[in-house]
Amino acid sequence: MAQPKVQNGGTEKAMTEAVKFTALKPQLTVEAPKAVDAVQFYKTAFGAVLTGRTTHPKRKAEQELPLILSAQLELAGTTILVSDIADDSAAPAKTGGTGVVLCLETEDVEAAIANAIKAGAVAEGDVAEGEDACGGGRVGKVKDPYGFVWEISSPAKNCADVEA
Amino acid sequence: MAQPKVQNGGTEKAMTEAVKFTALKPQLTVEAPKAVDAVQFYKTAFGAVLTGRTTHPKRKAEQELPLILSAQLELAGTTILVSDIADDSAAPAKTGGTGVVLCLETEDVEAAIANAIKAGAVAEGDVAEGEDACGGGRVGKVKDPYGFVWEISSPAKNCADVEA
């Protein structure tokens, strides 16, 4: 069955390309190296279950503790991520170490970011190949007009390195 | 089939009463009265779908616009809430109007809050009958040791007043 070609204009939706998002995960960022403790807290306080964890590649020889790039927790049927703040973190510095980044996953990162910018968001850096928040693949960030940071990435692979 | 009585102690989990959470919804709080615009932005930018909305009861005669207590959006299979900041908002004032509150729903609000406090969270006010974030029923708040605010409430009823 042939699909009729959609004309640009005529509906409000026409300004953005249709992008399917497969997951939305709130990422809680904490001052390094508190992520390990925070994960334990969410397990104890709320019964969250750790389902994946990735650590930052060691960039400084003097670092004793591995920084948590992303610990993935399941809570109330939802996935949340807990991350140590690092230099390349998406968390806004103004929150003093504590912040929430909204991680959206899609196969079409560039189109999703273009749509957000058309709607009024501001790009934070370039889209790049990266490994962030269990994502990997393409990763980009935008700040929306209300101050929230959205990280848009390729769908997460399974996180390795689960210990507890 | 009789359940064996669980002895207190012996496992790390035993310190907290088992509480089942039925939903976790990130609540994005914005400076009033921007919530209406923010909802429109998330619809345009990400294709979010508005599935419910409640407004604050009008408390000041001079208020022209109804404040959004909670607009419920579906995005990537997840529910997010968008709310205007009001006097009784859970959002931390320090973020200057923009913040994220993590809303957890459970039938057992008191036990959930007691568990969180035992684990190291700090109560923010008392548990009360309230109408907040589409919740209704019992509502309480805690701040965790990492600075995040969790609102724990009875499961949300359907939000009325959907316009667009």
TrEMBL record, chains A, B:
One protein family per Pfam: At5g48480-like_N
Signal peptide residue numbers: none
Segments forming domain VOC: 24-155
Gene3D superfamilies: 2,3-Dihydroxybiphenyl 1,2-Dioxygenase, domain 1
Superkingdom, taxonomy of origin: Eukaryota
Protein name per Swiss-Prot or TrEMBL: Glyoxalase_2 domain-containing protein
